[in-house]
């Protein structure tokens, strides 16, 4: 069976962690979690997977170590030793993220989660984003409320690193002029025009490639080990 769009997105999420080595990773959401487990089973075996509470776990969820949240905040977060993948209701052209509210802060049209850990994550260590529905409501020139801090607002923070954004259509980063968003790759079957049409600002499209397909071994792991019930297909329909 040929790889599906969900398989490609899962591998793109795994690629977020390439080169990270022995650091704590906190993938929030289904596809980022699948990607982190796949990365550890293949090209990044030293990743430390957090269960989001007090433990480090292996790819089967078996507890490998104890790491309470206070220890994470004291020894991991402030020193660039973590890579978190968050969601976003809005992402700005320079990497600002909004998960707090839509509309004016004093009178929002829609109340969301609040800023939560966005500021601390983005200024202290590498942060990536997963967006299952790439659209103009998410990709906006300026976010309504800044939760995660982008490149214009984070100058002087040594560990600030907004790494990449993976969506159901593409992979993006902030390698454009003045750290603006750049289209890195489109998933197979997706055109550059389709991505641009679903983005509210101009993207740097100077060096776009195609998102790589899973290897045979990665495809086997996805379908037999990491996500045998195919939950990824419901989040990213083919």
UniProtKB/TrEMBL annotation:
What keywords would UniProt list here?
Transferase
**Organism superkingdom:** Bacteria
**GO terms, molecular function:** CoA-transferase activity
Q: Which InterPro entries match?
A: CoA_trans_fam_I (IPR004165), NagB/RpiA_transferase-like (IPR037171)
Q: Which SMART domains match?
A: CoA_trans
Which protein family is it in? Belongs to the 3-oxoacid CoA-transferase subunit B family.
- Stated name of the protein: CoA-transferase
From what organism does this protein derive? Amycolatopsis albispora
